[in-house]
């Protein structure tokens, strides 16, 4: 309900960000020396509460989104229409990059097992962890033009993961090393001399 409302009432996102800061200013009782995202050892009890809540609400959320199953297919069609109308306002002379960030589960082990441990259901790990997956293919088919390039850092993140983790141990977001990997992938596109 909150996420549905926050899509329609933007002030909720602001309140969501500011209320914890206000509470901390008044009570000063939140631990500031321990951030579960920075905790090196994976532990289900330390994993992001938001992720656990999402899987309790819809265990197949990520799997269905990546593979475009069920209601998630309609969500993708609606989202693509909105993206297309937004991109139509950009001048033809302006190149557009659409960066498709993979969920940590798409890197495979150990993230698949971690997500299962906090409630995720995964129908087909082979599709979920493939470099060419339905979500990405759909965007490429629907949005890619001479002006619009769809980029996926999944292959680079998988390769970098062999050296060191690119996602936090207890949170599904990129850690600083993962951010650096994605940033380095984007550097060639930042130069005005680099053609699409």
Structure description:
There is one protein chain. With 196 residues, the chain is mainly α. It has ten helices and two strands, in the order αααααβαααβαα.
Overall 3D form: globular
Number of helices: 10
**Topology pattern, helix = H, strand = E:** HHHHHEHHHEHH
Q: Describe the main β-sheet briefly.
A: 2 strands, parallel
* Class inferred from helices and paired strands: mainly alpha
Number of domains: 1
- Helix proportion of residues, in percent? 40-55%
Features:
two-stranded parallel sheet; 49% helix; 196 residues; mainly alpha
Put the structure in a nutshell.
Helix content is 49%, strand content 4%. The chain has 10 helices and 2 strands. The longest helix is centred in the N-terminal third of the chain and has 17 residues, at 11-27.
List strands and helices in order, with pairings.
Elements: H1 2-8, H2 11-27, H3 49-57, H4 61-67, H5 71-87, E1 96-99, H6 111-117, H7 125-128, H8 134-143, E2 148-151, H9 154-161, H10 176-186
Parallel strand pairs: 1-2
Helix pairs in contact: 4-5, 5-8, 9-10
